[in-house]
Every structure is written in C-alpha cells, then in structure tokens.
Automatic annotation (TrEMBL):
Protein name: Aminotransferase class IV
Species of provenance: Chitinophaga nivalis
PANTHER family registered for this protein in UniProt: AMINO-ACID AMINOTRANSFERASE (PTHR42743), AMINODEOXYCHORISMATE LYASE (PTHR42743:SF2)
UniProt entry keywords in alphabetical sequence: Aminotransferase, Transferase
Lineage of the species this protein comes from: Bacteria, Pseudomonadati, Bacteroidota, Chitinophagia, Chitinophagales
Protein's UniProt keywords contain Transferase: yes
NCBIfam families in UniProt: PRK09266.1 (NF006734)
Family membership: Belongs to the class-IV pyridoxal-phosphate-dependent aminotransferase family.
Annotated Pfam families: Aminotran_4 (PF01063)
Keyword rRNA-binding: no
GO MF annotation terms: transaminase activity
Taxonomic superkingdom: Bacteria
Length: 264
C-alpha cells in the first residue's frame, strides 16, 4: 500500500495542484528493514547537495528525519522515497522555507539475484550527478527499446562508448582481482558509495576508472547495485557474456552485510 505525506501531512486532494510541481526537484530512494536504513548520512548529503545545486538553498533535514522515524515505527519494513521540489512561482528566488518535501512510503522491495541481460545505448543524462525527476521519461523510452530487442534492461554509454550507468542502477565489474566501477559521469548511488568504502576498508582491491565497451571481454563478472539489489548478476551486455563467478558476488554481498543498519 502506498502512503504519501507532504510537509509532514497526509496528501489530500487539496495538495494535488501542488504535486503538479513535483518534476521541479529531486529525490532519494531508501529501503528500510526493522525500522532501520543504511547510509542515512549519505542520503542527507544527497538531499542537501542537490537542493543547493538546483535551488541555491538546502532544506532542514531535522523534520524529515523526525517524520521518517514516525513512519518506521509504524511500518518498520518498507520502501521510502523523499522528494524535494519547488513550485514554478518559487523558481526565481527561493529560500529553504519554500521547499516542499514529499515522503512516499510503500511496500518493501525484495532483493533479486536473477541474472539479467542488458543492451547498451548512447545516452547522457542531463545533470547526471543529480537524482532529478526528469530521469523517468528517458528510462521508459530506452528500457522499452531494450526489451523490444529481447533484453531485460538498458545500460547507458557516452557518445565515445564509455559505460556510465543503467536505467535505475549503477554497474560494477570484477576482473578476477579487482572490483571496477565506471568513471564516466553518472549518478553515484548510495549503495555504490557505501560498498566502495566498505570494500576499501577491508583491503579488497577497488578501482574507479573509465570502462569502454571494448573492455568488456576482460571482465569475469558484471553486476547491478542500487537501493533494491546488491550484486544482481548481469549475464550478458550486448553480445558479451559473463561467467559471474559466484564467489565474487558473494564477496560483494558479504561486504554489504557489514554495512550497519541505522536508525535515521
């Protein structure tokens, strides 16, 4: 069941006009279990940084945190999405008090380990470092085209063929020794940031570098990372197949288990 709250109050028909402005903003997506989440410090930083970039000011995170705690007390296992946006009339000059905060709580999404096949397409998102509302239109178009070609999802590259990100996920590789994450401009997901930090702290080799389509045959494993799934194997990218050594994916998932679940 989906529940929405705007500025701390349940969404009613009176708020529908305000919600038409939802595309003028950004968001972060969270999975909660047992009333706890991972990486709340990074989610807060994302909300502040993106707001400063788009609006020139940052929201007060304290009421967001307080409302999330109330929701988690009632729905300890759930999916959460925090949108921050401004109405068109506010866009010329706004302050933190003008920002609208929408929190959506819904059924938790379980992690999948089912291998998928993805097709690449050249596409560079506008403001790739921001998780903005404009992501959806391109996602629908490119993912649909990938499925029409017989694949499960889409993987983006820049015009030179450097891999950036998937439709709603980051991609990672393993070459037999090192975890490799693409450097091409893309949204760095919270899960990616947490895992890279955890792997490095454990002394496991990690590299962030450009990965070109021509580099794909040298990798033994390819996998998906986002708030929903960790280490979901990619069996095929275009015509390149991956053996996906299970020990590599288990190492990745074990590292994820080391990341603490925290109370917001």
């Amino acid at each position: 069941m989906l529940r929405q709250y705007i500025n701390g109050q349940p969404v009613t028909t009176a708020a529908h006009q305000l919600l038409l402005s939802l595309n003028n903003g950004h968001f972060t997506a969270i999975q909660a279990r047992n009333a706890r989440i991972k990486g709340w410090d990074l989610h807060q930083e994302r909300l502040r940084t993106a707001s400063r970039f788009l609006f020139g000011c940052a929201p007060d995170i304290a009421p967001v945190t307080a409302h999330l705690r109330l929701l988690l007390d009632e729905y300890p296992d759930c999916a959460l999405r925090v949108n921050i946006f401004a109405t068109p009339a506010d866009l010329k000059q706004i302050s933190a008090d003008d920002l609208q905060i929408l929190i959506t709580q819904s059924t938790p999404v379980e992690m999948s380990h089912q291998p998928i096949r993805v097709s690449t397409t050249p596409y560079e998102r506008f403001l790739p470092h921001i998780k903005h509302a404009g992501i959806a239109v391109a996602l629908l178009h490119h993912k649909r085209n990938a499925r029409l070609r017989g694949f499960d999802d889409v993987l983006y590259t820049d015009v030179a063929g450097n891999i950036s990100e998937g439709s709603i996920w980051n991609i990672g590789f393993h070459d037999g020794d090192t975890f490799v994450f693409p450097y091409t401009p893309a949204l760095e997901g919270i899960t990616l940031q947490l895992l890279r930090r955890t792997l490095q702290q454990a002394g496991i080799p990690v590299q962030t570098t450009r990965v070109h389509l021509q580099d794909l045959p040298r990798f033994r494993a390819a996998f998906i990372l986002n708030s929903i799934t960790v280490g979901q194997p990619i069996a095929q990218i275009d015509q390149v197949n991956f053996s996906n050594d299970n020990s590599v994916l288990m190492q990745l998932r074990d590292a994820y288990q080391q990341i603490p679940w925290e109370r917001p």
